[in-house]
Specification:
Radius of gyration of chain A: 22 Å
Low-confidence stretches of chain A: none
Structural class of chain A: alpha+beta
Number of strands of chain A: 19
Strand content of chain A: 15-25%
CATH superfamily of the largest domain in chain A: Creatinase/methionine aminopeptidase superfamily
Mean pLDDT of chain A: 95
InterPro entries (chains A, B): Creatin/AminoP/Spt16_N (IPR029149), Creatinase/aminopeptidase-like (IPR036005), Creatinase_N (IPR000587), Pept_M24 (IPR000994), Peptidase_M24B (IPR050659)
Shape of chain A: elongated
Pfam families (chains A, B): Creatinase_N, Peptidase_M24
Protein name (chains A, B): Peptidase M24
CATH architecture of the largest domain in chain A: Alpha-Beta Complex
Helix content of chain A: 25-40%
Distance between the termini of chain A: 38 Å
Order of helices and strands of chain A: HEHEEEHEHEHHHEEEHHEEEEEEEEEE
Oligomer: homodimer
Number of helices of chain A: 9
Chain lengths: ~400, ~400
């Protein structure tokens, strides 16, 4: 069920408050996903939200959905030239733009057009607002987790040794698609790309990729990450690191599967990774710094004797152990050596992973809602290596 | 078969020549897809190409592919601080950046770091180079078209009335995935999103969306374009507007399918759209302006009596009739009212589409290689409305 008007009204009020605090008269929002976040509308246009919580949606072409009535005054606006007059009429002088989204050539056009205004950056404000999830958003994330589990359960009986990773991925994705997945995974980081997630088998998992993820995978020429033509064999680990999706919100979950009897060495490393994750879960509370979480993970990996493998990505290590999730798969905050504090109602994924060259990736990933009473785990697939063809 | 070294050497030489012409000493390329275009490597880092065609790949973490030997000197480069010294040592003073890709907050970091250099924009240079395809690229596009046709042929016997558009899309996409599709469709335009393409049935086709495509579709809440929960019924048009993919290159193709006897009115409009497309094909030669192509399409639609429906997108019309394709689905040039001339070896898609409110989208789309002898059509699925369950 889509968010109700109160959800958007609340988001707009929070933005207006932050704008006021930071000395902005208004925000000029251009990135479609952020327009969606504040209004529920996906539209090609500009969203103006003032510090008095007035909301105007200036649309180029059409709102897209004739039956949708957003929490905003919708104004057809075919030419940007009218924008300065429109803003001045609202007594706006200081205007915040999305400096993390606008490419410099587009930004320059605004600079020229809005020369009479003081332009600033609202990236951090929007990022921080989006990082704190509402009840509605948590419900979406829970539903996303359910759908992901359900899709995996329907997929597993269809998976056979001898399938290529790509063929297997296509079958899992068809299950997700049927359940409302857009076949699109929104990412935040510059140049990042991700499609659904990674289905990798055996040593595929330890092939590095350019993306900042828990693992890479061989992928295909022109998209060198994720599933490849490699055939899935008995007696190797199958990693399913996929995002569940509901109404725009994503959870991130990694689980392992195996055709055959799982070797003791694999099980022993898996148990250590699980112990590490359970140890981190103890610390997941509002007020802890993400640096402390990351350092604890590194220390625990040392204690458990898995440092050599921990968060490796080919010859290198990736310097994180998790990330925020929400409307984008790499939301605020990263769980890395950074001066950021977890807050109540943030949602983060933790993904401790060991890259064992002769085996593949041994790891898992769950998504958590941070509450004052500790973490609420949202992803719900069983946390064990599942032996197939039992 | 991935591109050979000569392909990259040639691209680099052409870039070096353009840099020289435009007064740049070097290009600093940061966008992964552009790094791939010039070197074949997908990597998190910086690519420096000088006007003397020297090539340095400064990588943050790892090249990703230990067995891959790009046409570049690969230098681990963990800190940006060394960049100015590195560039100065190469006697670089004037440096071109990708102003169409870099968000302003990232660009500002370069401005600070590279204060001693004259910074300029290489967006147009790269865009124009990429618009002209090599033999290798044309071969990739042909292969992409073959794969797309092949996937559709395998999918059609599985398609049944009563499937939701999403379920049907999942089955088609599984066929594409098995044949090497990354489940990712690269787009260029700011804020544009596309997943594979659009599989729409009946009146779904005429539901507008915020993206600049030939049609929208209901989609799902949070991704309001493309396939939806709507069930595919007998006696309605099924539009399959999908991108075929091979080694990074995409062709764009739209075809129509129908369970039942196709009504005369639908066939009559389809014939007119096909006539319009065939008319445009006559003009597809190096030297024609895209404006002339677009105006001809509009004029021809009037002559044929389909103006009312032509390129409508809900209550509005979209002001184009095609677009370049290649590594991104919306490459240079757009076929719209713009002062751009078609050149030999450009590859463009033409997609005349009629939005008929009581029927849906009646249209088709093909991808063409522009040659001195006229257009070479790359997409090869039969150009007729295919009646299923014949």
């Amino acid at each position: 069920m889509p968010a109700d008007r109160e959800e958007f009204t609340r988001r707009i009020a929070l933005l207006a408050e932050r704008l006021s605090q930071k000395g902005f008269d208004a925000a000029l929002i251009r990135y479609p996903l952020n327009i969606f976040y504040f209004t529920g509308a996906f539209v090609d246009g500009h969203l103006v939200i003032t510090k008095r919580a007035e909301v105007f949606l200036l649309v180029y072409r059409t709102l897209g959905r004739p039956d949708f009535n957003p929490v905003a005054e919708v104004i057809p606006f075919r030419s940007l030239k009218k924008l300065p007059v429109f803003l001045a009429d609202l007594s706006i002088k200081t205007l915040g733009l999305e400096e993390d989204r606008l490419p410099i050539n587009l930004y320059r056009r605004y600079q020229k057009l809005l020369a009479a205004f003081d332009l600033g950056d609202i990236s951090e404000i929007v990022r921080n607002l989006r990082a704190i999830k509402s009840r509605y958003e948590i419900d979406c994330l829970k539903k996303a987790a359910e759908i992901l589990s359900d899709a995996i359960y329907s997929f597993l009986p269809k998976l056979k040794p001898g399938f290529s990773e790509l063929e297997a991925a296509g079958l899992l994705e068809a299950e997700l698609r049927k359940r409302g997945h857009p076949a699109f995974t929104r990412t935040y980081g510059f140049g990042q790309e991700l499609a659904y997630g990674h289905l990798l088998s055996g040593k595929s998992g330890v092939i590095p990729a350019f993306v900042t993820t828990g693992q890479g995978g061989q992928g295909i020429y022109g998209f060198p990450q994720g599933p490849s033509e490699k055939k899935i064999q008995p007696n190797e680990l199958i990693l399913i690191d996929y995002a569940g999706w509901h109404e725009g919100y994503m959870v991130d979950q990694s689980r392992l599967f195996y055709f055959g009897n799982i070797p003791q060495k694999t099980l022993a490393i898996y148990d250590k990774v699980l112990a590490l994750l359970e140890d981190l879960e103890q610390l997941l509370r509002p007020g802890i710094s993400v640096q402390k979480l990351y350092e604890r993970a590194v220390l625990k990996a040392e204690e458990l004797g898995i440092s050599e493998y921990f968060m490796a990505h080919g010859p290198e290590k990736v310097p994180f152990v998790g990330h925020g999730v929400g409307l984008e798969i790499d939301e605020w905050p990263p769980i890395a050596s950074l001066d950021i504090t977890l807050e109540e109602n943030m949602v983060i994924a933790l993904e401790p992973k060991c890259h064992v060259p002769e085996i593949g990736v041994i790891g898992l990933e769950d998504t958590y809602h941070i509450t004052a009473n500790g973490p609420e785990r949202l992803t719900l697939f069983p946390r064990k290596i599942i032996s197939l063809l039992d």
